[in-house]
Amino acid sequence: MLLLAVALAIAFRHQLFPRRYADRSSSPAAYESYLRGQEYLRRYDKPGNLDAAIKQFQSTTQTDPKFALAFAALGEGYWTKYALEEDPQWVQLASAACQRAAELNSQLPAVYVTLGRIHSGTGQRDLAIQEFQRALELDQHNVAALLGLADTYSRLGRNQEAEDLYKRAIAMRPDMWDAYHRLGAFYYEQRRFSEAGEQFGRVIQLLPDHTFAHTSLGTTLLALGRTPEAEVEFKKSLALTPDYVAATNLGVIYYNQKRYAESAAMTEQALRINDKDYRLWNNLAIASEWLGQTEKARLARHEELTRLEQLAPLRHDDADVQANLGVMYSQLRLRDKAKTHLEAALALSPDNADVLAKAGEAYENLGERSLALTYFRKALQKGSTLADLEANPDLRSLLSDPSAHRVLHRAVESTTQPAATASR
Fold first, then answer.
1. Which residue, among 407, 394, 412, 352, has the nearest Cα to 342 in the 3D structure?
2. What pLDDT is stored for residue 419 in this prediction?
3. Considering the domain 319-391+404-411, what is its CATH architecture?
């Protein structure tokens, strides 16, 4: 399976909501606890702040079980926990807290914003749009709802609408770091890397100590081929906070430099911070395979599969999750399961080079080399490189086959031929 850099750290909107909502608490102590929680949540990138925020909101809801806004904030805290760690247990908790908030007060924009995020993040995009639009009906200037709607449009491929909403949010709140960060993440997904880097740089201008902004800038620099600068940003991030994304991507840099022992060590450091993200186990397995540590690689694969199977029901429309499951099942020779997930991934992202390459890898594992080469050719045409394939230890047999190697080289040559000039 191809090594993956962990995706950009995700930005979220945290803000104090108008006092007319918060004043509904009958307890001054509950309100003060709520305010402390919001302060922690606003800078969830700092070590311990997210857990502290959740603890404050839990205390608030215990002190005042009818304080709807505190339940909404608790739901947001739980959802942020899930989005950062990818541990499915937080999804149910987030949903339950938001539903309780809605029961107590159906007029809170915050409730619908968080419900929108949950629906969007679990593939229920139509429901998400309805929730964000409901929040905007209650408060047309709600920047959190604008950003959530923009994120959802981006996932649906409605890119111009998404970009317009991100820019509208920035115009409304030019001091809001996460609006710039989300626009940067949008540009990154569109492979507009220079523009993405500019937005992450704006976050750093606002908050020089923002861990995730340094990580995201480093990820973007890595995509631009500016590896030394990317390494600097990841190290800045780790100096601020033990960020598993930064540690993982440092491991990716070392892997690409064939420093496999250092890559494995850095990935293990990331796993000590967060062991729920399947991609880290994938990276550890691949580095271990190059190091000849077969048993360590096998155990890492087992952990990867466990996390993927837990995540798949929540991310049924995530092509990467589906493709990786397809590869895992192909390694276990579970042909029907593998093909089911590969077909789902290809239906979701038929032109994605990484998905196409994973399909090739899976069919190679299943002994269907001709079909594997078909997908590898398509992957090369869409942006993969021979170096990407050569970095995958599971493709050594394929690449040692002279006829297969010729097919792949011809595919590369066909993508580099100059376009013919149309005759007049």
1. 352
2. 38
3. Alpha Horseshoe (1.25)
